[in-house]
Amino acid sequence: xxxxxxxxxxxxxxxxxxxxxxxxxxxxxxxxxxxxxxxxxxxxxxxxxxxxxxxxxxxxxxxxxxxxxxxxxxxxxxxxxxxxxxxxxxxxxxxxxxxxxxxxxxxxxxxxxxxxxxxxxxxxxxxxxxxxxxxxxxxxxxxxxxxxxxxxxxxxxxxxxxxxxxxxxxxxxxxxxxxxxxxxxxxxxxxxxxxxxxxxxxxxxxxxxxxxxxxxxxxxxxxxxxxxxxxxxxxxxxxxxxxxxxxxxxxxxxxxxxxxxxxxxxxxxxxxxxxxxxxxxxxxxxxxxxxxxxxxxxxxxxxxxxxxxxxxxxxxxxxxxxxxxxxxxxxxxxxxxxxxxxxxxxxxxxxxxxxxxxxxxxxxxxxxxxxxxxxxxxxxxxxxxxxxxxxxxxxxxxxxxxxxxxxxx
Length: 409
What we know:
By secondary structure, this protein is of the alpha/beta class. The protein folds into four domains: 13-28 and 176-321, Molybdenum Cofactor Biosythetic Enzyme, Chain A; 31-51 and 151-174, Molybdopterin biosynthesis moea protein, domain 2, CATH 3.90.105.10; 57-136, Molybdopterin biosynthesis moeA protein, domain 3; 332-404, MoeA, C-terminal, domain IV (Beta-clip), CATH 2.40.340.10. Helices cover 17% and strands 28% of the residues. The strands form seven sheets. The chain has a six-stranded mixed β-sheet with strand order 7-4-6-5-9-8, with no helix packed on it. α1 (13-23) crosses α6 (302-321) and α3 runs parallel beside α6 (302-321). It is elongated, with a radius of gyration of 30 Å.
């Protein structure tokens, strides 16, 4: 057995976040189908392969006529639907019916909206002309070679549509990290099982799976008791055969007699960078690395899990995806909707809360929690308020820092 190494000093949440970003360098990008790229980070800039639009197009349903034709009555000589290509030189007194998106048949034309005309068989009457040409001209959106989507953007529906329009059917994006999650503890049983006295249902596996699932990551999950050798065997096999990018171990991160996560990671060749934090919930956090594998030893209590996932694992996932640290820092600011009676803890506290929009501004409602094992606040929590150490009271309307757990209220 490898003797215990000296513990790194307790680190603040800010230091842990900075360290995680150093340890987690961007993963090699991959090309995937456009339909599977929602939420991924684009790792190359994409330029327009041709002018956008590629040809002059009608912006409305109507009739194409000469721009300087003074006629009021016109003979309808053709019809152009979207997808047709029917070039022709229109003469004075001639008009072509054209659909929205249809290719303009020549130069020096305008399109008169259908609503501004009268039709009597083949004869078109235009009582007046507004001067609007109603044409989307070739290249007015972008010229060939012009960058349409910058590298580093998160691909949301609008950006995906733009890539589709540029013919980028297999964008180069960040690879999703592979995650192995071990939920440890003799006391945990599956959610569908009635726990006996002394047992509890496993909530951390669900929390981890749901958190990762929102990013399209499906972890490999193993539920195990406090069988140190069995866990060691599982991890050795996983690290030898197909090392994950992220190893999560729920439970065993503290300093009790049966908390062996830290020592086990040392035996497996990991370097321990963090063994505890100066914040709560989630003080007994372990951050370690071996080669390209980063490991998080997470405290077993579910609220502590929620905090560590939204602070530190989120930072790891963003770094692996190639996203830079937020330019304005990790925390946003908002005002409290009610008083927050804190307890003066000597440690920085991440307080479960619910953020919402009120009159266009962000409002924060702190939620009640009794301990790091209290799940009840998580039913509505979508944020964490950063409460400085030794704070005893924050009054309604106070501006505080927070980190959102959801992108929308």
